């Protein structure tokens, strides 16, 4: 999973990093790194500092930007399994 909003821009133009859609490209994320980030978020939520302990994780199918949770041929169910392992039913 990554983030690349450049498909939504004019490819011949150059732009300063002024916010969406002209933001940096993120690449080379793995389900393991994603899981580490989820653990950090869960730990933060567990500290009870928010009145509403809820977080938006990611988009389900932003294939154009390379940021999706759906299974693929590279990582299989890796990102969904990471969510299940971190936020699934606690024993």
UniProtKB/TrEMBL annotation:
It comes from the Bacteria. This is Uncharacterized protein.
